[in-house]
Amino acid sequence: MLSYLHGYHAGNFADLHKHAALWLILTHLRKKKKPFCVIDTHAGSGWYDLGSDQAAKTGEWHGGIGAAQTGKNAPEILQDYMDHVSRFDPIAHGREYGVRDTDEYAGPFYPGSPFIVREMLRDEDELVLMELHPRENETLYHRVKRDPRIHLHKRDGYEGLVAMMPPAIRRGLVLMDPSYDVKQDYQRAANSLQNAWDKWPTGTFMLWYPILEDGFDADLRKSIGAIKSQGGVLCAELAADHGGAKGRMRGAGLLVINPPWQFDQDIDVIGSWLAKTCKLPGPGHHTTSWLVPAE
Ligand code: SAM
Q1: Which numbered atom of ligand 1 lies nearest the CA of 188?
Q2: I need a surface site. Which of 29, 131, 179, 219 has the fewest CB within 10 A?
Q3: pTM of the shown model
Q4: Please, which residues have CB within 8 angstroms of residue 209's CB and are 6 or more apart in sequence?
């Protein structure tokens, strides 16, 4: 059952938090010459037209990237990522970025995780994408097929991840960003990450999750917090202090196994700024805590 389409939510406050964290980890991976790989288990369609009917229907991006781009005193460590988003223009790249003559675009555009990683890849680095939704997969295929560093699979991200472990390039990151449109996603994400980490204990793994009123996020923190990795497990949450409307997201969290050095401080600086700059369902804040301390 694949009913979720990221185009309705692209660029909202939760996307921004996740993508800023992704950028921090990629920046760290680029510090060494040795190649790195990124495995994105739930890739989406690659990039989003914020002028589309989908984006207009929710208008969520106005309270996310829209607010951040006009916000004051953005932290310096966020600047590179913000510049990438401001510069991002698939139309200028035409067919290379999968722009089709048959489609109409309005802009502005927002890069999803595949095109955030793509920007940071060097010649020897690799990006593996999984996307199960037939139409999202097809769109993504046209957008990445010309880049030999990127490999797209139409397969289940939870199973695919474990089957690919350990990757041939042993430095890198797994991003798991499920849509949580079915309740089983929570358990499947936790099991998949546990099994993948068993086979690749030195990899960095980042799981995104929504904070709703149902409390499933607490189960997730418990499961991932049971992964006793030497590099630790960090939890970073950006959330409104009180619940939003029933069934609506109050906030979003990231669970990061083996985060890079100082990631905890950097994401807290960024998240605290996002908490006061973006439109959350109510006044909110950012918290970071180590579920498993780094040794
Ligand atoms: N990671 C993307 C980004 O940051 O731009 C957004 C991904 S969106 C939140 C989740 C995606 O996962 C959707 O496009 C959905 O079709 C896809 N999906 C859902 N279940 C999946 C599964 N079991 N395996 C792979 N992809 C799946």
Answers
A1: 23
A2: 219
A3: 0.98
A4: 180, 186, 189, 216, 217, 220, 252, 253, 254, 255
8 A C-beta contact, residue 257 and residue 224: yes
Query: Which among 67, 267, 40 has a CA at the least distance from the CA of 160?
Result: 40
Pocket probe mutation, ligand 1, options 132, 155, 186, 207, max atoms within 8 Å of Cβ: 132
Amino acid at 270: I
The residue with tokens 């991840």 is: 161
Residue 273 CB less than 6 A away from ligand 1: no
CA distances from 148 to 123, 153, 173, 205, 215 (A): 9, 14, 19, 24, 42
The neighbour count for residue 17, using CB atoms within 10 Å, is: 27
The count of residues in the chain is 295
What is the mean pLDDT of each successive set of 10 residues along the chain, which is 295 residues long? 90 98 98 98 98 95 97 96 97 96 94 98 98 97 98 98 98 98 95 98 98 88 97 97 76 98 98 97 95 96
Return the amino acid letter for 132.
L
Q: 213 to each of 36, 242, 287, how far by Cα in Å?
A: 37, 10, 18
Q: How far is the CA of 54 from the centre of ligand 1 (A)?
A: 17
* Active site (annotated) includes residue 101: no
Instruction: Give 174's DSSP letter.
Output: E
* Fold entry, domain 6-292: Rossmann fold (3.40.50)
What is the greatest pairwise CA distance in the chain? 54
> ipTM of the assembly?
1.00
Which are the contacts of 193, defined by CB distance < 8 A and separation ≥ 6? 161, 174, 176, 205, 207, 224, 227, 257
